[in-house]
Design a protein that fits this description.
This protein is an alpha/beta fold and 371 residues long. 42% of the residues lie in helices and 18% in strands. The chain is built from 13 helices and 10 strands. It has a 5-stranded mixed sheet with strand order 3-2-1-4-5, with helices on both faces. It has a 5-stranded mixed sheet with strand order 8-7-6-9-10, sandwiched between helices. The longest helix is centred in the C-terminal third of the chain and has 29 residues. The relative contact order is 0.18. Bound molecules: 5'-O-[(R)-(carboxyoxy)(hydroxy)phosphoryl]adenosine and zinc ion. Zinc ion binds next to helix 4.
Length: 371
Amino acid sequence: MTVLAIETSCDETAVAILREDDGEMGAARHPRLLASEVASQVAAHEKYGGIVPEIASRNHLIYAPRLLDRAVSAAKTQLSQIHAFAATNGPGLASSLMIGASIAKGLAIGFGQRFLGINHLEGHLLSPFFGAETDGENNIKPNVSLIVSGGHTILVVVRGLANYQLIGQTVDDAAGEAFDKVAKMLGLGYPGGPEIEKHAHGGDPKRFDFPRSMLGSENFSFSGLKTAVRYLLPKIRVIPSEAQRSRGTPLNDAVSNASGSLDFARDDKLLADLCASFQQAIIDVLVTKTIAAAQKYRLDRVTISGGVSCNQELRRQMRDASSRKGIEFKSAEPWLCTDNAAMIAFAALLRLRAGFESQVSEEINPNLKVA
Ligand code: KG4
Ligand code: ZN
């Protein structure tokens, strides 16, 4: 069985091909990723300070056919050898989702094969079970799943494939969004998460006492944290380094206006402490709530996925907190954490094994929920 998947929910165009050989009865099946192509559009949107849906959509139209060609040739296969075509059908930007879904549907119709519409969030939450460390069957063991990305921060109780219960979500910004917005205030680049992680190295995470919101709830809120950073900057007269200044990305307007007298001397320790303290505030919230949910729902496994789960400090602290409580911790390999089509192909393969398929008449759903 060979599955081709297309992911175009936001500003990344991605195509992947996944194959599993029909093993003997009872033998473990080992899906092999034959190709995984991702084209990032970060540069096209950076100058607008955010994603412009029409530009994303046009770029998907340009990149998707090229990536299809590249993936098919990297996999040394042909489209006629594919047994099912999958695409992300939500949540995401309507004008982006419709490109990948239309292409996958067209291919499924043209080659007389099955089509699967896959929930982007399901792609993320299954991704920790894809990879070398897992058993060949990729059994989805019950777990509390934290999906933490630029668009989502949600906690899900996963009881098995297609058996999901949403138990918490952000009431305002997603964690990744908070990383991106704070990075912008600090004059760092986009995406902000990796920039803040890089600058946090060697910083003192205790220097600034940022709020940890809604700790007693399973929901999340990060806008207060973002505002706390915004109000702090003028007070400490935060200083961008030469490197940031030369990139021409000044501090956020509100900050420079409010302070009126920014001191532009170099102070990299301040920036490191600020990044480390901000990052630690997010990590504390994510770790505390995920572990508390595992205990509440009596599950002995937690998983994390989505772009923010690339963060090494988050992975380390979640692993340590889990092991202190006798909970197993699983995360996807970093390359699988940010948006990609391999996770969509993997979800499609598991769904095909379990007898699911979609109708080509199924519409995309920009507001698709995980449960
Ligand atoms: O999953 P993803 O690629 O796209 C969405 O579905 O949103 O996640 C992108 C988000 C961005 O907000 C980015 O800043 C964040 O993931 N991110 C990180 C790191 N790498 C990416 N956040 C913190 N630390 C990182 N190392
Ligand atoms: Zn995502």
